[in-house]
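Lecture notes, unit on protein representations.

Consider one protein chain, 272 amino acids long.
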Amino acid sequence: MRRLYISVLALVALAFLAATGLLLAPMLSGPAQMTVTDPAAPPGTLTETERPDLRPALPASLDYAPDVTGATRHPVLDGIMPRTWWGYAPEGLDTPAPVIVLFHGAGRDGLSMIDMWQPVADENGLILVAINDANGAPGEIPDGAFLHSVLNAAAEIYPVDRTRMFLFGHSAGAITAQLAANRVIGPWRGVAAHAGYVNPTLLHPIRDAPPIRLYLGTSDQIFDVTSARIAADYLSRAGHDYQLVLIPGHTHWFYEGGPDFAADAWDWFASL
């Protein structure tokens, strides 16, 4: 059964890389709201730890569909292109609250990320904003102007605390979140990601870089540990305090242990 599970995940990995070309394809974005390179920016720190306690059980099935109540989908324009985002806030939330901006993996949409974070949001009074990618395969450098337009729209609906904004992404969304941390101006207090690292050629040194934490399974079929260490080194040299958290034996699959990763990420965010 385990061999079948790993084989299926390997096929998923190949399909992912073939469909997205995320690590090698050029990624472009508009100049608005983008960070400015600063060669004199001081480097950040780099740490690596192991967290076997975060390893989820192997799923009984790779069939997954979000099971969410209370989230709403909102239209938004990206230039002239219609797009959507999902929003969620616990019932009765009426005071300024932290915001978690969520970036989904390839082939999913923002509702899958709301599903993983909803228990943590309910327990801690968090607002969730999950942007649906235009083609279902995120990973490009985010357009800063578009990202801020979504957050401005969210602030008209929810009691957003603009001083407590955090980014989180899975897989291709993990790439997006980390690129946003380095390339998009924003009040990002911290960035956490699961199972995805950036192409170092897309990074540049910046001042006041937000800290980043990456959760990565040592048995991830798409993103390997050696390359993750290289990307982590580049991000720390670009100014980010970077934590590489390795989960022994964990694979790329997110939807079995997603709520646990969300809870751990929030504990870290809250400590910043």
